[in-house]
Write a structure and sequence with these properties.
Helix content is 41%, strand content 17%. The protein is α/β, with parallel strands linked by helices.
């Protein structure tokens, strides 16, 4: 008879991580049931062994009256997952980083553990909800699976995954189950293998950094631009050979000298020493104009200035753009090209601009024709990779084998028909830039595994090859499919899903932002190269009534059709398409989604919305703690952590706005209309 084990954690991600860890040591004679307190309804616990992820979760179990003294129970001690530590190794020395977690005791405990492993090259700053006096100049954060509480001023997040059970906890579990003696060898071997593996990976990462530093000086001198590094007092620490040529300096060495000793243009000196302005400016140096740009690295008191000849800049920019366009490796659209003044669209654009500045892998969700390709292009052009290549591949348009050879390339003789000398793949061609993977939901399970390796290891291997090639590519993926449902149906890898969704945006369908239709029509008419100047009120009303299931693409097709068949300078009902022209759908499901969203929510969500509405009307600030207290003694009793999850779901449905300001959580007009009619 199989023994039953219950594992209870605070979140789905932690639950899945700990279950996978247990499966490494337990065979099919054990059944593991997993529960997340912020999502699942937890039954009465009568199993052979109950494992609780932390003391904090144990308190939640007690609050829910599920704890009994006779339970065979183990409260886990947890430690960081060493599999992700090489991310920290790559953070530059002396960088100030926030270490983010829900609870202060975990924050301080994990920071000490990381330092004990020898990763002391960065300055760890504790952060948890409610902490005061946070340094908002910090731009980097590390978190063990708590990205949702990372503050919004952070631009680079290193997610080292949920903490796993430590050596002593696994030992206790195996002992409680009566299999420690038989599993001791396997357990010790796995633990030793993991220890050796992380040691090797950390050593490799450090060696790569050491090698980089060894070659840095020759790289700096080889740059075609003039390079200068100096502190706030103007004392120079780095200058390259090209800068010395630009300045025609009498000094062989600049290091240790003051800027005033080598520069004689007072406006240039003022610009370089100004700590508040970092926009590029043009200055004349020795009768030649140079574009001078400067940056200050995170946690550094030094400024890096770059001098580039204006003439070379124009020539090189034009040459590069022509070459990229010729090859099709050029992102054509920027955020200013995206038409949409509606609140929904402006919010998506605002978030996308912020995410573009990060290095996060991006997942764009949207219906066909909603503009996913525009956002992918705009994200690249707003990123730090904008001067690198931009490549796009559509998974729905290519066969499995063709996709693999296109993405990863192949070696000579890899298969019948392979080109002599092999072929470089798109990942290698996109090195230093962005690759856009459209219709990612159509990728096969085999390719999902290979893509996951690219995301995890930042390296590829060509088809038929044996050499591993490191790559520096940002991935932006897009889909019109519900990947989460595909994960539940085992059609899409869960680990890949979470890797892709580090940065996520949802492009709203046109029917949810109809206020953008007039601007879209005006743009389409201007670009239709026709004499059409106006559009009749009847046509305008008709276009507003339709729900545009084909989104902006369908609207464009409609406008193009009407322009083609019109006889004058106005679009009127005489040129309006027949009903069969439009992409109709069953309207029942659509109306339920649009008009009665609240009917698809459980009673507890309805309860929460009414409470928020009451507090808003009476100018009473409300948040998860107050709302959680309101559930005591009701049928909807929830902890504040369960409440956080419910509020997050309501925000995703645009029914509330979660703010850190004075008002706290605020109900939207959409939700008010729904609950008033319910």
């Amino acid at each position: 008879m199989r023994k039953i084990i219950s594992l209870i954690a605070g979140s789905i991600r932690t639950k899945d991580t700990l279950i996978n860890q247990l499966k490494e040591y337990l065979d099919d004679s054990f059944e593991i049931k997993g529960y997340a307190t912020n999502e699942d309804i937890i039954p009465i616990l009568n199993d052979n062994l109950v494992i609780i992820s932390s003391e904090f979760v144990l308190d939640e179990i007690k609050d829910l009256n599920l704890y009994r003294d006779d339970l065979e129970l183990i409260v886990a001690k947890r430690t960081i997952n060493n599999d992700f530590l090489d991310q920290i190794v790559g953070i530059p020395d002396n960088t100030r980083v926030l270490f983010v977690n829900e609870l202060p005791e975990i924050v301080y405990d994990v920071i000490e553990h990381i330092k004990d492993l020898g990763l002391t090259h960065v300055d760890y700053v504790p952060y948890y909800p409610g902490i005061e006096d946070v340094d908002r100049s910090i731009r980097v954060a590390i978190t063990p699976g708590e990205e949702e509480i990372v503050p919004d001023f952070i631009t680079q997040i290193y997610d080292i995954g949920p903490r796993i059970m430590d050596f002593t906890t696994i030992t206790k579990i195996l002992n409680k189950l009566g299999i420690l003696d038989t599993k001791a060898g396997q357990f010790s071997q796995k633990y030793l293998e993991k220890t050796i593996q992380i040691a090797r990976r950390l050593a490799e990462s450090k060696n790569r950094i050491l090698e980089l530093n060894t070659h840095l000086e020759s790289v700096i001198d080889g740059l075609s631009d003039g390079l200068l590094v100096y502190d706030k007092y103007g004392i120079i620490s780095v200058s390259n050979e090209n800068l010395r040529k630009i300045l025609n300096s009498n000094f062989v060495f600049h290091i240790g000298r003051n800027l005033k000793e080598i520069l004689y243009n007072p406006d240039l000196l003022e610009f370089l020493l100004d700590e508040n302005h970092f926009e590029d400016k043009v200055f004349k140096v020795n009768h030649t104009e140079y574009s001078v740009s400067k940056i200050r690295l995170n946690s550094s008191t030094s400024t890096i200035a770059k001098f580039k000849s204006i003439k070379e800049t124009i020539t090189e920019s034009d040459r590069l753009k022509r070459e990229l366009i010729k090859k099709g490796y050029f992102a054509k659209y920027e955020f200013d090209d995206i038409i949409g003044n509606s609140e929904r669209m402006q919010k998506v654009i605002r978030i996308s601009r912020k995410l573009a500045k990060s290095e996060l892998t991006m997942l764009i969700y949207g219906e066909n024709g909603s503009g996913k390709e525009l956002f992918a292009s705009a994200i690249h052009n707003a990123s730090n990779r904008k001067n690198g290549p931009y490549l796009a591949v559509n998974f729905s348009a290519l066969s499995d084998d063709l996709i693999e050879s296109e993405l990863f390339g192949y070696e000579e003789g890899a298969f019948t028909g392979a080109k002599k000398g092999g072929k470089i793949g798109l990942f290698e061609q996109a090195d230093g830039g962005t690759i856009f993977l459209d219709e990612i939901g159509d990728i096969s399970v085999k390719l999902q595994a290979r893509l996951l390796r690219v995301l995890q290891e930042k390296e590829i291997m060509r088809v038929g090859g044996s050499e591993i090639k490191p790559i520096d590519v940002r991935i932006v993926a897009a889909t019109n499919k519900n990947l989460f449902e595909m994960v539940k149906n085992n059609e899409f890898r869960e680990d890949l899903y979470h890797r892709l969704k580090m940065g996520y945006i949802k492009v709203p369908p046109l029917r949810e932002r109809k206020s953008d239709i007039p601007n879209l029509i005006s743009y389409m008419l201007v670009n239709a190269t026709s004499e059409i100047k106006t559009i009749s009120n009847d046509v305008r009303d008709k276009l507003f009534q339709y729900n545009w299931y084909g989104n902006v693409r369908e609207l464009k097709n409609t406008i193009d059709y009407m322009v083609a068949v019109s006889d004058g300078t106005e679009l009127n009902m005489d040129c309006f398409p027949d009903t069969e022209f439009f992409q109709e759908r069953e309207t029942l499901h659509e109306s339920v989604n649009q008009v009665n969203v609240i009917d698809n929510l459980s009673s507890e969500y309805h309860f929460i919305l009414k409470k928020i509405h009451y507090y808003n009307n009476n100018d009473i600030p409300c948040g998860r703690e107050k709302l959680s207290e309101d559930t005591i003694g009701t049928d909807f009793m929830m902890t504040k952590y369960q409440m956080r999850t419910r509020l997050k779901h309501l925000m995703e449905k645009d029914l509330i706005i979660m703010s850190k300001g004075k008002k706290g959580t605020v109900i939207t007009e959409k939700a008010i209309g729904l609950i008033m009619g319910h």
